[in-house]
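ok here's the first one, seq then struct tokens
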Amino acid sequence: MDSVFNAVASLSDPFVIFLIIAGTGAGIIIGAMPGLGSVLAITLALPLTFVLAPQSSIILLLSLYCGSVYGGSLSAIAINTPGTPQSAATILDGYPMMMRGQGPQAMGWATVGSTLGGLLSAVILVVAAPLLARFGLEFGPIEYFALGIFSLTCVVAVSGEARLKGLIACLMGLLVATIGQDPLTGSVRMNFSSFELSAGVGLIPLLVGLFALSEVFWRISNRLDAASTNASIGFRLPALQDLLSRWKIILRSAVIGTGVGTLPGVGATAASMISYAEARRVSPNRENFGKGEPDGILASETSNNAVTSGALVPTLSLGIPGDPITAVMLGALTLQGVTPGPRLFTENPDLTTFIFTGLFAINIAMFALGALICPLFSRIIRVPEPLLLAAVVVLIAIGTYSVNFNPFDLGLLLVAGLAGFVMRLLGFPLAPVVIGFVLGDMIEQSLRQGMILTKGDFLGFLNSPIALTLFTLTVVFLLLPPALRFFRSRRAR
């Protein structure tokens, strides 16, 4: 209890409050800029950690982390461009709501979902951090492969009626993920004699090109102007009754995000896709998904912000970073003389309690700052259409180039944009490409490592209880919808 009082006293320090507000606000703005993302936000702040106390450094980095993950939803809703990869699922319903004249409501749902996801995952982190850390240790290559296959069921959810095209798009994403070095042997594959492709295709050029640049091409081809849309600006919180009626989706998405966050290397993008698919499966409004359904925004944003706390579980408890962002934070902790690991909770109880308590304060600050920033950010849609499209092209080009400062990424951006435009013309959904690409490396690497462990016997994968459970759920999720339709049609006849 003394550590709780000490944490509250530390958080009441005016300088710490300033760091929370400044870090969260800066994180939201950086996250809303396509191509920048959470890693850049935290990396830019690393030099400040050399002159700050350990608690101040940690609270600043956590504020930037949480704020940037939420900030990606703003551009996803306003201009159909996910500011961060974590918000890739948010555009599926956020942008249609914006175009339907419900932009303020979409911003409100994203803000509430992000805040509740962060708060609920913080509660789960406090209660179950040791248990979740031990559960994460149970995952080996075989379990990761089963999780990746289960995650591919998201394709069914985001493809709507075009499930065959969604499957083809997912296979395209898996194929693109194989470009570059072999994860086990190091040999180069499918680089088309290009040295730059030896390192593979970057997620940022692919993601921004598929969604943002293809949107620009699509608008130009249809000769849309600002007056032809119903887009509106502002910020409006959802009604309390509407929010309470969706408590199951909120809780389920928070649990999924926190659980996926504890698994090193999976990340918030996969978590948001899984939560989106699960929400579509159980939502009474499942037919509206992809057309501007608040349940989709709520599931995506609740989950990807819940990952922020979940990723801290292996980082603090085991010294294993849950994602690239917490890997940077792990380095910052080490620079401060803090050694994450099993002994951290017993040797530094004040620090761990401060982190847990700080997450609550950060998410509350994120809600307040989001309510202030959303109306300002969404005013960009008042800009005339030609100027807006030109600004979007410049913005995404700068954001993509700033990741690696490599002109080749701009070429990838253009190719991905043209590919996305052609896919739109042919009626192919874009989200399955991202799902396949994001999960491709994990599925391939874990499959091959698992085959080595089982000496080439794939049936040996079924000896793992976790993998067997995930395989069973995959089969159920794939076969249950057509089975239900079959029985309904027989009953109707």
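and now the second one, same deal
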Amino acid sequence: MRSRYCAFVLRDAAYLLRTWDPRTRPATLDFDDSLVWQGLEIVRTVRGQAEDTLGMVHFRAHYRFPTETGFSADVQEERSKFTRESTDSQWLYLD
């Protein structure tokens, strides 16, 4: 999750698509250039350990966006599921 958050901050579409499960991966990604990412807060994880092939990350991604009078802050909160084919393969974002 942390590496995908960093990829969003850097607008690294290639990395995001490469680490997205093919069953749910979009053809392309669009970024909102007005957002300024402020930080990632991991709230909870379920499974996702070395011996697992499924996991969930509950997180909050903090960001700012421009308004007519300056900037306003908001949070994107999500529970993301990750999967991998075997314990020696890479984790992929599922949904």
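notes on #2: The helical segments are 2-10, 13-18. The chain has one domain: 2-93.
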